[in-house]
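Figure caption, in words: inputs first, then the predicted bound structure.
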Amino acid sequence: MRIRFVTTNPGKIEEARARLGPRGVDVRPHAARPTELQADTLEEVARHKAESVRGRAPAPYFVEDAGLFVDALGGFPGVYSRHAFDTIGCRGILRLLAGVPARRRAARFRAVIAYADRGGRLHLFEGTVKGRITARPRGGNGFGFDPIFEPHGLDRTFAELGTAEKGQASHRGRALDALAKHLAVKGRV
Ligand code: IMP
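Bound structure (inosinic acid present):
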């Protein structure tokens, strides 16, 4: 089946294609700009983004909202991740954690997909990955906070992984897996 991913982030498109392509889902980018609500949860933001492109993006389509939650910062940047990345960036997060030892640098990435089916009904899918914030940026792949996030069980950051490897370990990969499972159950693929 063909499905539109409404995003302007080429990194997210690449990850979705790598994860869903082999399962028979043809992911096509769609550049309609969703409006981004400032809300307390990724779920609310994702739902609102999906509603905001209704009628402008051909169904079935999905949008996604993701964020990095750092324990030692009370969950910041969380739902403010985009703004934090555009302003203070990876270096700013590292500065905020200056002097914090490795065992207190726990963080997690979360992603929420809002999928609008052919009939326009919304379905939410979530993925989380736990890990830690590194002492310095490492790696040149991926995007956003990838160079400073090391998932549990790996001694490499997301930016040191290839797209397929990141997909196996990442929040987005897990949310995409949940979407793929839903589509398979519905007999769409
Ligand atoms: P968005 O609003 O879902 O695009 O994500 C908010 C911000 O979180 C982005 O600007 C990225 O900097 C960051 N982000 C989201 N997903 C990832 C990821 O998989 N790796 C690294 N950073 C990410």
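The mean pLDDT is 96.
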